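Hi R.,

As promised, here are both runs. First protein below:
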Amino acid sequence: MAIDVGIDVEILKCEIKKTYARVSERPDEDFIFPTGRAWALDLGYPEDLLALVPDESVESFAGVANPFSLGALLPGEHVLDIGSGAGTDSLVASQMIGTGGSVTGIDMTVEMLVKARAGAAAMGAPNVEFLEGEAEDLPFPDESFDVVISNGVIDLVPDKDVVFAGIFRVLRPGGRIQIADVTIQQPVSEEGRRNIDLWTG
């Protein structure tokens, strides 16, 4: 049963895609959220690992916090990055897990996927792949990943129960989630839930 958020979810997805296509194609534009390498460093990303991520990827970084502050990934782990954007988190993760592991990024914004794939190629990261898809419909078999990471994405999805059910389905027994996201302390008003601008950024 789909959750009713008082807004057309397809219109919402379209607006989110437009916003993040702009972040991909015009990273120097002013957004209502911070972006770029300096922001990632402010969030405490490992400087040595971030230094190896190509500028073209990091310039469109739009995360809200640092999922790696919850712990480093381990060599050989298989990682899913939900809402991978331009690929910064995936490319940092690929260095932690090494050649024995893998990182799969999934994103619904084509422009971000193009940038992420170019970044992986420029960095020479054969253990990373980026796929088009949505957080609510993960196209992976059960128990496929050791770790699921995500950064500032789940807050954009109206039906969070569906997202978390999918995460738990694709995690292996003993797997873990490392999510950085926006939370609220009070319920959002009906008017606020219908405001697309509040959803998209």
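And here is the second one, sequence first, then its structure tokens:
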Amino acid sequence: MHERALRELQALPIPTVVEGPQVQPDLVPPGDSALFLDPTPAWQREVLTPRPMPSSDPARALANRLIKDRIYADRIAERARELGFPVLVNDGSRPFVDEAEALVRIPEGPVDLRAARRWENEASAANIRAWLASPESPGFDPQLTWSCECGRYGCDATLRLTLSEYESSDVRFAH
């Protein structure tokens, strides 16, 4: 995983679910809890089959992808177990939230969603600043969607502001 992404994850103020092949057991900070999902070969095939395979031979590309993904999944699961992390086999047939919660240490007490939303907005702002400074930038500050920072559970309100409006505004709440 890219170093910047790791720094952003470590800065998160709340427990976080992260998924993707770039999340490796060796990158989990000492003392943190983690759970690794190990997809069954059948589930991998079910998920990958509908995806387009950019190749002159899509069937062969899919077969090769399935082999590569299986090797990678086996290595991740093995390393996770070596490091003492639980591994949950995922066949796609059921939700596994209860199993996951039983396997991973989840902090007790209320979670400060204001801090989480602020982190989300600040991470977006950093990405947008970098994009605006890049050669691919459109040369203008587009209006974007920012998360409400009220902290209420279930709030999905947003604000539409440019980056400069977001950075110069004390108004961080949609209501």
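A quick note on the second one: Residues 149 and 170 are 11 Å apart (CA to CA). Let me know what you think.

Best,
J.
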